[in-house]
Amino acid sequence: MSSLVKATKLIGNLIGKVIQYSPVFESEPWGFVADTSFFNVVLMAESELNPQQVLNQVLEIENTLGRKRSGKEYSSRIIDIDILFYDEKKIDENNLVIPHPLLHRRKFVLEPLAAIAPDLIHPGYQTTITELLHQLKDNSLISLVVEKEEFARLVNE
Question: Residue 142 in contact with residue 25, Cβ under 8 Å?
């Protein structure tokens, strides 16, 4: 949980003002087997940075917090920050795809995202986040760990 708090503070300092926090959820690993579960939160931030600059800052934050990248396989890691959306933009570049190409298949993303942006329209599917969550076939376990107000308090301490 402390990595989420540290990452959120760094996002606020390096990328832009965090204007919304989802609750924190705990989920089982997705796409691989691991001994530990994961904590997930979705943030909404206002930024003057362009998408590539945001990505560069995200990678720097992950590096600062001790993330070691090793290939393309899923694995346990101390922190993983994804850019889910950037306004209504659709971006498909070598190192950056927005909206995130797998968010519509991941309960651990859609559940917290629906908590802060239920009516957000996914530009690739022309449907709301709530509708994507209801259509989801991901039956993985996910549970609320920290309410969003409590997480915001931890970040702002």
Answer: yes
Q: Give the residues across from 21 on adjacent strands.
A: 43
Report DSSP letters for the chain, one per residue.
-HHHHHHHHHHHHHTEEEEEEPPEEEE--SSS--SS-EEE--EEEEESS-HHHHHHHHHHHHHHTT----SSS----S-------STT--EEETTEEES-TTGGG-HHHHHHHHHH-TTPEETTTTEEHHHHHHH------EEEEE-HHHHHHHHT-
In a domain, 134, yes or no: no
* Nearest Cα residue to 49 out of 22, 88, 17: 17
Count how many domains the chain has.
Answer: 1
* CATH code at position 96: 3.30.70.560
pLDDT tens digit string along 62-102?
A: 999 987 766 665 555 668 899 999 999 999 999 999 999 99
The pTM for the full model equals 0.89
Other Cβ atoms less than 10 A from the Cβ of 3: the count is: 16
Range of the domain at 16: 2-103+141-155
In a domain, 90, yes or no: yes
